[in-house]
Write a sequence for this structure.
């Protein structure tokens, strides 16, 4: 089994399987996206890890073949997969699929951290060079910056992520799932109602605000006013912590990553704050904000080119690895 490549122009197959999405994509070291195949497990009740893993298991072989075929490449040089963090049964399917195809193609395998890949997608898709990363997906909300060779988490949610908090509020007032886009639309006609504002040090807490907003709805507050007020309150909290991270690090860029980046009001708030500080605001295109294999392939290329070598026999999943444990060597 090969463990290295000739390090010239590299073509990497990336496999993503941390949670609901199975993704396979082929990317080149020149940042060309040659294919991007994805399929998402859905359920009425939220994600059931073994069911999601079954979904991935069923589709992985055909999706990997499709990604390779659509890329038009005769030769794949490297296979990267999401090694951490994520739901163990789902991670395992991705790893076994990666091992199988790496053996078949006789190429090196490399395991990457899924959150790192999301952050680095800020460099793949925008001009940001050394930003504060504002990562806001369903379950995650973290304000991160690279300092001293590590991704330092400056602030994060103490309970659920921003997206899930909006969804929970939406569920509470009968908007259905996912509520984020509906809240954004309703907010356009709303007026401000005061809600708790909870920034603790550099951390954020959303749960109590959701409870308070749902409670106000039950007592007769209008849904559009609550949607407007939720956005203004939650996004101001996030903008405040991002501004403090910019001030502390002296960085001049912020990049927004994750599905909540779809929200125009959030982008506008961060943009205004950045402009007022002489900083630049970037946003990863929505198509690549969610889980996909493209970012995994690109991260695999960076780490491989920087000399990382994983053993196909020893490599395993690492479901609980935090982003701040990883030394940035690429
Ligand atoms: P995770 O990877 O953290 O488990 P996820 O993959 O479900 O979560 P994403 O796809 O990055 O997360 O983002 C989904 C979230 O983005 C949902 O909570 C959804 O409500 C939110 N969202 C989508 N569009 C908007 C919008 N226009 N305004 C606010 N939130 C939005």
């Amino acid at each position: 089994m090969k463990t290295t490549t000739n390090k010239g122009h590299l073509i990497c197959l990336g496999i993503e399987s941390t949670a609901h999405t199975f993704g396979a994509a082929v990317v080149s070291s020149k940042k060309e996206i040659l294919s991007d195949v994805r399929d998402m497990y859905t359920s009425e009740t939220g994600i059931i890890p073994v069911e999601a893993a079954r979904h991935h298991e069923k589709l992985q072989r055909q999706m990997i073949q499709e990604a390779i075929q659509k890329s038009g490449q005769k030769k794949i040089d490297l296979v990267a997969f999401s090694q951490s963090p994520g739901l163990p049964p789902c991670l395992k399917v991705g790893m076994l699929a990666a091992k199988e195809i790496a053996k078949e193609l006789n190429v090196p395998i490399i395991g990457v951290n899924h959150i790192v890949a999301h952050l680095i997608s800020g460099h793949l898709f925008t001009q940001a060079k050394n930003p504060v990363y504002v990562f806001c997906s369903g379950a995650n909300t973290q304000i991160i910056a690279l300092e001293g060779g590590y991704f330092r988490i400056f602030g994060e949610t103490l309970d659920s992520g921003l997206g899930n908090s909006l969804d929970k509020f939406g569920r509470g007032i009968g908007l259905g799932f996912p509520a984020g886009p509906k809240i954004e639309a309703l907010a356009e006609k709303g007026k401000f109602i005061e809600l708790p504002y909870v920034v603790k040090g550099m951390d954020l807490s959303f749960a109590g605000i959701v409870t308070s907003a749902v409670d106000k709805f039950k007592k007769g507050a209008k849904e559009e006013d609550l949607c407007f007020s939720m956005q203004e309150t939650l996004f101001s909290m996030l903008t405040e912590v991002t501004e403090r991270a910019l001030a502390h690090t002296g960085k001049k860029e912020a990049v927004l990553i994750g599905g909540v980046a779809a929200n125009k009001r959030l982008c506008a708030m961060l943009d205004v704050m950045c402009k007022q500080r002489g900083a630049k605001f970037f946003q990863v295109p929505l198509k690549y904000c969610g889980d996909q294999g493209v970012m995994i392939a690109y991260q695999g290329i960076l780490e491989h080119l920087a000399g990382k070598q994983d053993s196909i026999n020893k490599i395993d999943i690492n479901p609980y690895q935090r982003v701040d444990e990883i030394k940035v060597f690429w």
In short: The longest strand covers residues 21-28. The pocket of adenosine-5'-triphosphate is lined by residues 19, 137-140, 161, 163-164, 166-167, 178-181, 184, 258-260, 262-263, 289-291 (CB under 6 Å). The longest helix spans residues 223-249. The CA atoms of residues 24 and 37 lie 5 Å apart.
